[in-house]
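Session log. Operator J.P. requested a structure for one protein chain; no other inputs attached. Running the standard single-chain path with C-alpha cell output.
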Amino acid sequence: MASTKEYLDFVLEQLSGLDEISSWAMMGEFILYYRGKVFGGICDDRLLVKPVPVAVKMMPDAEMEPPYDGAKKMILVDDVDNRQFLCELVESMWEELPKKEKKCK
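Structure written below.
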C-alpha cells in the first residue's frame, strides 16, 4: 500500500519547526531529509526513522519494523501527534546520521 500525500503533509507540518526538512517521493513512499541527511521515511502511512543511538534512547519501547519486505528494520514513531517530541527527535538524530553519499558520475 502506498503512502498518501495527506499523511506526508501532516508529518511535514508537524516538523515545520525545523529548517531544511524535505521529502523525496520514491515508489509510492517518501524519504525524509533533515539538513541534507536522510533520517527516515513514510511507508504505508507510517513514520519510520533510522535506529541511531539517540533515537533508540528517546524511544526505548518503540517497535522496530521494516519499511518494506527485505529491508532493515527502522523505528516506528507512533506519537506523530506530538510536534515538540518529533522536532526534538529529528534534531537530536542529525549528528548521528550518516553523511550524504556522493554520487559517482
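Operator note: Residues 5-96 form a domain with the Yope Regulator; Chain: A, fold (CATH 3.30.1460.30).
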